[in-house]
Every structure is written in C-alpha cells, then in structure tokens.
Amino acid sequence: MKNTKYVFVTGGVTSSLGKGIIAASLAKLLQERGYSVTIQKLDPYINIDPGTLNPYEHGECYVTEDGAETDLDLGHYERFLNIPTSQANNVTTGRIYQSVIEKERRGEFLGKTVQVIPHITDEIKDRIQILGNTGDFDIIITEIGGTVGDIESLPYIESVRQLLWEFGHENAIVIHLTLIPYLAAAGELKTKPTQHSVKMLMQSGVSPDILVCRTEYEISDSIKNKLALFCNVKKEDVIESIDAETIYDVPNLMLKEGLDTVVLKKLQLPHDRQPELKVWNEFLMKFKNPKNTVEIGLIGKYVELHDAYKSISEAFIHAGAQNEVKVNIHWIHSEELTVKNVPKKLKKLNGILVAPGFGERGIEGKIEAVKYARENNIPFFGICLGMQMAVIEFSRNVLGLKGANSTEMNSNTKYPVIDLMEEQKNITDYGGTMRLGAWDCILKDDSKVRDIYHKEHISERHRHRYELNNVFLEQVEKAGMIATGKNPKTNLVEVIEIPKHPWFVGVQYHPEYKSTVLNPHPLFVDFVKATLNHALSQPTNH
Question: Quick one: which of 16, 84, 258, 368 is 20 to 30 A from 45 by CA?
Fold first, then answer.
C-alpha cells in the first residue's frame, strides 16, 4: 500500500480568505505533476451536514455522487480536479459527535468516561484517514474550516497535532493561510495579525510549515524576512497570494510562487516534473478573450448572496469559455417579479434560467418568468424547482388548469401537477431524507436533450422531494410539453422540453454540480449557445 502524505490547511486572522481555493489550486498543481490527490473539508459546525442550513447562512449546499449534502468548497475541489468527491470528503462536528454518542450508547467504550480527548479527537483522526486508507491517493489535502482560535476548531487542531507526531514530519505538513492587511493611513502592509495568528496556532502545539499570505499588494522581501523570523519558517516558505482577477488564475499564481515545489520538498517527494496546465490555460484564454456577450437572467430567491447559486454561476463560466462568450448574469429576485413588470425587467435578456429552491416564497414571480420566456421564444432553462415551475405555468396557461400548483406550495390544489414522491409522504425529519445523489435517466430519441448529451443513458445528481405527477403527464404531453427523460426504475419524469420552442428545457436534477473546467456540462454549453443565437438574431440599436 502506498504511503499517503497529508497536507493540512488552516486559516488565521479572518474567515473567507479562500482556504478552499488555495487547497484546490495546490491539488491541481500536484495532479498536473502526476500525483493522485484528493481534498477533504472539516467543518466545525454542529449541524450534521449543510442540508438543513439556509443558503443565506452557508451559501449553496453541494451534493456529491453518493448523495452527501456537503459544503460548497467540495464543488471547487471537483471543478478544479475533475474527479468526484464523496461522503468521506466532508466531515462536520455534528457527524463526529453523533458517531461518538452512538458508540457510547452501544457500550463500545467499556464504561469509560467519554471525553473530547481522546474520544472526539480519535474519531476526527479516523475520519481524516478514511481516504488515505483506501490506498488510492498519494497526497490528501485536508482543509480545516473556520479560523485558528475559534473554540469549535480546537478539537480539530489538537487532532492535527497528534497526527503530525504520529505520521512524522516528512509525511504530514501544515499550510497556514493568513491575511497581510494594508493600512491606507500608514501606507503599508502589516504583519502583526499574521504573527498573532501563528502564535495562537503554536500555542495549540502546531507549527506551520508554510505561510500563504493573502494580500492586496505585493509582499516585499523585507516583509517575507520579517515573517520568516517571527513565525519560525524559512523565507522560501512564505508564499504570496495576491488578489486574483478570477479564482481560476490562482493555480498559475501558486505555480509562479512555487507553492507545489515547497510542498513536495517538505514531503520528500520527487518534484522534477513541471505542471503544464495546458488545457487549464486554454480555458483561461477563452474565458478572458470572449468574442461575444450574452445576457442571462438567473431568477431565484437567494440572489442577494451569489454563493447560494455557486455551482450555477461557475457552470456558466465553463460554458461561456467553451462558446467564447462572456456570460453576464443578471441576478433577479423572483419576489420582485409581477405580471406588470416582467416585460420591462426581462426584455433585454437572451436567456432565462429559473433556479432551484424550496418553499413558496417568490413562486409566482418564477412562474411569470417562465411564461415570458415561453411566449417570447427566449431560451429557457429550468433546474429542479425551475422545471416544476415550467410544468405549473404550462398547466395553468396552456392546459387551462386554473390554480394548478405543487402540493409543496398548496396542499389543497385542485390540480397537483407537482406532488410529493410516495416514499416521501411519511417522512418527518428534513435532514438527509430527500432524493439525493446520482440517479439514472433514459433520454428519448429525437429529443433536444438526446442531441445535447449525444447518448441515451445519463446519470445526474438530485436533491429534491417533489416530482411531476404522472397523472397529468398525458394531458401535458398532448398540449406540446414532452417528457424527454425518465428514470428507468421509477418512471418519474427527469426532463421536459417544448419542441416547438427554440430552446425550452427543464430538468429535475442539478446538472450544475457536474460541470468542471475540463468538462463543462453539455446542457449549460448548449443553453449558452442558444442564448448567443438569440443575441445575434436581435436587431442592434445604433
């Protein structure tokens, strides 16, 4: 079995410094050098997973192939590395304590007093090593959420301290990500917050091997020397991470700074093969030099926090680069859309995407947006709830089923065209009980989606409770909205489209989760292409 090496990434001074992007960028560089790498995220909150968290609190909940509801950083890992993550890549304090308490109830601790050390820290250490024990990876990067000094992070830092001692220095290292703020009044960068942060980490018994310093301005040699002196690291171990134009620039910036070389030297691994980043840089080239621009409206209910739709906005970046167009996303709050203002708010758009979501807030606005797209031949893409809204709009305005709705919004609707799945009807717990993870779908011959995917059998990730009610399917299809994708086992509708419309597709699954830099999702690529055709067909206003 291969000797797996570990890289721990901690953060100091402030949260949201971009530990996930640094971890993903380092992993990308190591992968380009021929190493098999994966990344895991340890989240210090007590929720079992982010599945029940409000998107305003935590941004998007990302779903893996095996149905784990996880942190949005796992989306970055997949988009950068182009390999799927799993349940094992995300651990929360809630899951750790749940596991330990269950063991205690089963009597596994033989009557001992259960304590944070060793029982909680042992559980954390076991979770950290699950991926390493598979023998599939040369290097595992472990990102620890939160900031050093947070009470909830302490058991994780202690677990890292123990593992560093157990693994030995050539098998495990710590990268500490920190902030070098610029004080405008003094006109200089300040190292003191970083010094304090490192001191706090060292008080927990962990010394950083590498400092990655987030900064708005270049760090001079004298600052690097100062940091090296006060933080017990060598000067070449102080890495500058300057603000980038896009997250996709960060691997190149880290390559220039030599982060991957420093890491490999410390782990005593060969570092002669240089990362090429050929396909990556081709993508960046197209992304930064678009030939056209399209205007796409994202109709959602959490639009104030763009992270709530992180995978969708990233999928647009991938699909835009593929089409050599700049995708301008117009973030439109569905609660603000009414029958009267829809034409004014949506008239300049080349495409309309109605986003996923839960609950009845903002539903009528989404339905009006669908109607506008359908009646005005504007390319339309509905994802999850967006597809359900398309079915409701069609049922109301084309079939004439007045008040047609989803039982999620109105349990007494006369026409429940969207209804709860049978197996969901007796469920009272919300966490982890939806249809989650990868499910199969068979696409119909001669359909738009079949042409887009270039295959009949697809697998996509889900996260929902409600489905198109097959009782109404015949009526819907007769009127011109066709179910072109179905689950082979359950016969539930996965894809709808209107063949007479230039581009009108709704999907029950979440294609955005599978879009990566190297493999942009075909649905997003084709949707962006349709919006470009729409843009080019519009009369120009000179």
Answer: 84
